[in-house]
């Protein structure tokens, strides 16, 4: 019933996988048995030979006993191979017994029993390792041909020669197809798990970048409002209004990030950077009208995230009093790039290594084909992010 809820290809893959797995219900076990039963058509000739009365009573009884044992072992091995196979030595012993029964019955009771070699070939192809199956199948075919020569019934032997040979090799192909299908299903499950992990990382990066910036701004404006409230209530009210706007925008951004539709724009982030730096009493130099001609959307989004993370670090951790943002087009050995540089005169924070923000930025830029450099400089801290430009774009200053 659950297959009705899946896509068609998922349901087909699931049905294929069940060929190589144990039955889940009695109905599925019956379907597997029905799939095996049509192959028993080659037993009609031995049964007819025993029922015809051409043999003595002892030979007929021995023939029925041998045929029953042969069919019982065959069905047991083949049916178990679809679910929980026996151990290798059990299977090898069973096939050896089947091979012996086929040879003995064919040599003693005649050409009507050559069909048993078809089942021996099937068992070799389904159960033996490929390197073993590739020589036991011809050996089984040769044994049937030798029996035909011994009982003077080469016409029957030649009639089944290709059947015995080809059905065994076809079973090796079926077994490999089932095994490949099972491995494919496992691989698809692994890919789905990796995709889920990647989506969780993406969401974690988005939430860090979104909330880190917004909450820092809210904190700054809250502190300003608290200091202004006694002497300048009107200015404090303006700060509270700004806090409300930032909070609402943060909520919108989080919702968009969760749904996976948010793609930040660099122009908007530059404007937001100017507001955040001014609110933190940091002297800011930020380009107001950037030239983004020829910048791929993925590259622009990566630079926008880089700018947001850099400004958040300046406001929260650096203790800087001045910050400069530059946006330049440069020609490199790898082609034209758009370079975003954020430099401040602060301490760069107290961390001893790259934080989650810089790690996430590096991953974002790598996906857009870009690079990230961040570290202390003589007068403070500098972050440089680069993304490739589209072909045919003129290179010049776009600050």
Helix-strand blueprint:
Layout: H1 8-19, H2 26-36, H3 44-51, H4 57-81, H5 88-109, H6 116-127, H7 130-150, H8 154-228, H9 233-259, H10 266-279, E1 283-285, H11 297-318, E2 322-332, E3 335-344, H12 356-367, E4 371-377, E5 380-388
Helix pairs in contact: 1-8, 3-4, 4-5, 4-6, 5-6, 5-7, 6-7, 6-8, 7-8, 8-9, 8-11, 8-12, 10-11, 11-12
Summarize this entry quickly.
The chain is of the alpha+beta class.
- How do the strands line up in the largest sheet? 1-2-3-5-4
Helix content: 55-70%
Report strand %: 5-15%
DSSP summary: helix tally = 12
Tell me the Rg in angstroms: 38 Å
General description of the model:
The chain is an alpha+beta fold. Helices cover 65% and strands 10% of the residues. The chain has twelve helices and five strands. A five-stranded mixed β-sheet has the order 1-2-3-5-4. The longest helix has 75 residues, at 154-228. The radius of gyration is 38 Å and the shape is rod-shaped.
